[in-house]
Every structure is written in C-alpha cells, then in structure tokens.
Amino acid sequence: MMLIPCPWCGPREEAEFHYGGQAHVSYPADPAALSDADWARYLFFRDNPKGPFAERWNHSASCRRWFNVIRDTVTNEILAVYPAGQPKPVIA
Amino acid sequence: MAGPGSDLPDHPDWLWRNPEPKRSYDVIVIGAGGHGLATAYYLAKNHGITNVAVLERGWLAGGNMARNTTIIRSNYLWDESAGIYEHALKLWEGLEEDLDYPILFSQRGVVNLAHSLQDVRDSVRRVEANRLNGVDAEWLDPQQVKEVCPIVNVSPDVRYPVLGGTYQPRAGIAKHDYVAWGFARAADALGVDLIQHCEVTGLDIAGGRITGVQTTRGRIAAGKVAMAAAGHSSVVARMAGIDLPVQSHPLQALVSELLEPVHPTVVMSNAVHVYVSQAHKGELVMGAGIDSYNGYGQRGAFHIIERQMSAALELFPAFARAHVLRTWGGIVDVTPDASPIVGLTPVDELYVNCGWGTGGFKATPGVGWCYAHTIAHGEPHPLNAPFSLDRFTTGALVDEHGAAAVAH
C-alpha cells in the first residue's frame, strides 16, 4: 500500500484515495470540429508509460480535493505532488 | 568410482531446445506467454510457417501465464465474444490430445453469482444470449447454486445475499504451466525457436513496413512481427510509434495452503470482487479485482487482498480457518470496452494482440488459432475481425463489462 502525500492533509494511506488516471487531459475546445480519429484519441487513448506518470488522485475519504502526482509506475515512488491546474513540474 | 550424486536419476529430457537466435525469421512473435506460444504453434501446425522465433525478455511463460487463476469459460454476452471464446473452449476440449501433453483440463463448471435485482436481470439476459450462440448456460436459483456448490452461503442474512447465478457446465480450469509447456514443446518440435532472455528494444520499420527487431542479443530480421506482450503491450507498440487504448494495472491473486477437496466447481462474483476455485493439488485459488492505478511493478496493495478475503469469507464461511499461503501480482492491459485488440496495425506486417485485461488465459488456444491466421494471411480471421484496433475510431465497441468486469 502506498503512502500518498495529500497537499492539504499530509501523508495518508492509499485506501483513502480515489484514482483519476492521466493528468493534464483537457476537454477539447471545440468538440464538434474534431475528426472521428481525434475524438477517439480524446475519449479512449491515455498515456501508459513504464516509469514516471503524471496522474490525478482525489482524497475522497478526507478533504475530497483533487491533486496531481508524478509517480513511477514501476517502483510506485512519488516524485512530485502539485495542485490541479498547475503545470507539470519537470522531473530531473 | 562413483562420484557424489551418481546415484541420482538423470535429468529428465528438456521439453524444448534453447537455440541461439538466427539472423532472420519469417515471423517473430514478441512474448513467450500462453498467447505467443499458442500463436507460434498454430502458425507451424495450421499454416506450415515454421521459420518462426518467439522472443521472451524473461523466462518462458513467467508473466501472466504463471500468475492467472486458470479459469476457462465462454459465457460472454455479445456474439463477437461468444465467437472467439467458444472457439477457444472447443479447442480446450481437444487440447490434451492435440498437444499430446497433460494439461489437467477439468470441466468442473463455473457459477457467476448474482447479488442484486439488476445482477439477476443481467445474468438471465446473458444466459439467454449464450444459448442463442450455442454456448451452454443455465440460470440457477439460490438452492440450485447450493446444489452445485454446497459450501456457498446462500443465507439471505448477509450483506450481499446470493440471489442466484449463471452456470456454464463446460467451463472449468486447467494447469496453466502445463498449458504453456505443452504449447512450447509442440511448437519446438515443429521447428519454432523459443528464445528466452532476449528483450526486444526496438522495432525496425522502413517505408511503413516492419523489417526486424532490435534485441538485447542483436538485430534479428523478420518478414512479419507479431506482438503478444500483454501488460507491456504499450511499451512495445510505442517502439513503432503506435499508441494503444490500453492501461496497464496490477492484478492480484492468492492461494491457501493445501486442503481436502471442498470446492467442486468455480465460483465467481463480480459484485463482491472475488473468484474462487480449488486447484488439483488442493490450494484454494482466489483472484481479486485490479488495483485502481496504472502499474508495471507486478505487485499490488494489501487492502485489495483484505477486501477480497472478506468477500470470500462471507460467501464461503468454511474458509474461516484457511490461511493465505502466498499472494502475487501480474500486469494486465485493460481496454475501454473490456474486449481484446487482435489484428492489424498501421505498420505493414506488424500485428497486435493485446487488451485481454484480466481474462486472457481462457482464450489461449482460440486467440493463438485466430492470431496465427491473421499473421499468415495478412488479414484478420473472421472471429477476431470485430476486435480491430480501429473499432475505437469507428465506435463499433464490444462492451463486455458485464460479463468481464473484475472477474474476467
């Protein structure tokens, strides 16, 4: 089980959180203008890297706020935590 | 003079050679799991294509093929799924004879429990759909569930009472390692090179066509390349610049110590997230749902195991004194519609088989059969044609969340 550092509540066990998948996926500005292929990419395709991954978590059992995490998908090491809406930090 | 160990029996014969990779092959299969091995076998057997290598980064059948809960069934909802899973089940029924190798295939039936009114409606609908597709299926009321599996608790006084279940008598289990070894031995005998500890690090493409692979043991040229990398499919496809609509998740399972035979069938429950059978040796084999997050670490969180255990105990009070012997995790590649992707890619002569999620084992002979056809002919077999990569653009999804979901 992971210990996930909520930006507002501090480190809490993983069971308190809800996973939100890839971060920084914004709704298309003009959905009607998208081709079928572009719409499919928005709807069904998400990054699936082996290594650092920017993803969303919600602290559903406590403050109920969304935030972003960069986590290594092999080691589960958490490399960065930052509020939703902020740009993705550069990981060395 | 007899040296130490001279009184011991000779090492048994190896089931396959361990050849050095040749410089080129007609077909390279990436991944020596069940699907890769079955594909190589049917390429050689059905299509006469024997200049084939199966490349494996680890050891043969050491990924999900060694980690699944061995459940075999074909009671999926839609016609497309019934087609390929039932084809697989029919092949399972003759596989020991075909491979001339024991795989402990046991048609002890599978019960899928319903715990809510909606579960009941969906289950009865699925039974009717199965029958229309020639798949054996019955609806059991709680008392009939108890007759099929006497240790299931069908008391109404539990949090999620058993309201009935679907039953597929021809479903069952097999010994996963023996299945892999049987396919490996048979493919090797037909001339296929099984090459372990050979990781693919790049895919060579010229003019939109695959020409070979880069590996940790040098470049190998190939006329055709077929991916069968399960949880690592995204990583391999990325080498060809292809994005796949799959997400890799940890999936955990566990076994108890060896017990007397108490569990005569296979019981699965989507609602409470557990599926249970008893292996030939006597261990209770239980699978969990996936861990929610993306992961390549082949392990998951313990709270998933705890929830799975509490669900199992409510269904099977007799398990209260059993002990968890070991738990483990694999990496499963999950698609948005809980159906696999088997077919062509945007790169000529590069083929994809992935997205089987939590349920690839049961399909092993069926997908091997159809994928080999796809590779040999350069076009999909009719049974895997619906499972194309472009269905996510056309919208022709095969939504099997009801029949697959957690308990695939």
TrEMBL record, chain A:
Gene: soxD_2
InterPro entries documented for this protein: SoxD, SoxD_sf
Protein name according to UniProt: Sarcosine oxidase subunit delta
Coiled coil feature spans: none
GO MF entries: sarcosine oxidase activity
Taxonomic lineage: Bacteria, Bacillati, Actinomycetota, Actinomycetes, Micromonosporales
GO process annotations (BP): tetrahydrofolate metabolic process
Automatic annotation (TrEMBL), chain B:
Entry annotated with the keyword Cytoplasm: yes
Keyword Oxidoreductase: yes
Main enzyme class: oxidoreductase
Native source organism of the sequence: Planosporangium flavigriseum
Stretches assigned to the Rhodanese domain: 27-71
Named cofactor requirement(s): FAD; FMN
PANTHER family reported in the protein's UniProt record: FAD-DEPENDENT OXIDOREDUCTASE DOMAIN-CONTAINING PROTEIN 1 (PTHR13847:SF287), SARCOSINE DEHYDROGENASE-RELATED (PTHR13847)
Catalytic activity: sarcosine + O2 + H2O = formaldehyde + glycine + H2O2; sarcosine + (6S)-5,6,7,8-tetrahydrofolate + O2 = (6R)-5,10-methylene-5,6,7,8-tetrahydrofolate + glycine + H2O2
Predominant localisation class: cytoplasm
InterPro entries, A to Z: FAD-dep_OxRdtase, FAD/NAD-bd_sf, Rhodanese-like_dom, SoxB
Pfam families: DAO
Compartment(s) where it occurs, according to its Swiss-Prot or TrEMBL record: Cytoplasm
EC numbers: 1.5.3.24
Name by which UniProt lists this protein: Sarcosine oxidase subunit beta
Superkingdom of the organism of origin: Bacteria
UniProt-listed GO biological process terms: tetrahydrofolate metabolic process
GO molecular function list: nucleotide binding; sarcosine oxidase activity
A single cellular component GO annotation: cytoplasm
Cleavable signal peptide: none
Coiled-coil spans in chain: none
Similarity comment text for this entry: Belongs to the SoxB family.
Keywords: Cytoplasm, FAD, Flavoprotein, FMN, Nucleotide-binding, Oxidoreductase
